[in-house]
Amino acid sequence: QVQLVESGGGLVQPGGSLRLSCAASGRTFSIYFASYRMGWFRQAPGKEREFVASIMWSGVTTYQADSVKGRFTIYRDNAKNMVYLQMTSLNPEDTAVYYCAAAQGPGVSRSTADYPYWGQGTQVTVSS
User: Fold this and answer.
1) CB 4, CB 117: distance < 8 Å
2) Per residue in 12-23, pLDDT tens?
3) Which residues of 74-85 are buried (b: 16+ CB within 10 A; e: fewer)?
């Protein structure tokens, strides 16, 4: 059994910052978390889920969507089975439910189909 739990969402004003956290737990993650690539995705009302950022198992390689490049940073702490999404310069278009996702294997990926494990999501609302 594996579990991903996101936290850190909330209401923030335009131009503000938030840090999302994703805690991975369960027997598989407790042993092999460092072998998983992790991703953040988001889904706004009425829209499809879209890629935000991905990070490979070692944390050396990351990949961000063009819409967040330079504003969002993904990083991980394998010792704590955690992955984070630091978000800065937020704007109303960033409003969405943000999901953490995991997949065993190398590299990074922007495809939802490549991630079998998902969290329940955390709401981020950017509004004045």
Assistant:
1) yes
2) 999 999 999 999
3) bebeeeebbbbb
Q: Which amino acid is at 98?
A: Y
Task: Report residue 20 as tokens.
Answer: 């999302």
End-to-end CA distance of the chain: 40
With beta carbons less than 8 A apart as the criterion, state whether 31 and 13 touch.
no
**Of 33, 76, 31, 27, residue with least CA distance to 53:** 76
Is residue 115 within 8 A of residue 103, CB to CB? The reply is yes
In 10 A of CB 114, how many CB atoms? 15
**In angstroms, how far is CA 1 from the centroid of its own chain?**
20
Closest CA to 41 of 105, 107, 122: 122
For the segment 107-126, what is each residue's pLDDT rounded down to a tens digit?
889 999 999 999 999 999 99
Q: Is residue 73 predicted with pLDDT exceeding 90? A: yes
Cα separation values, 41 from 2, 109, 115, 118, Å? 18, 11, 11, 10
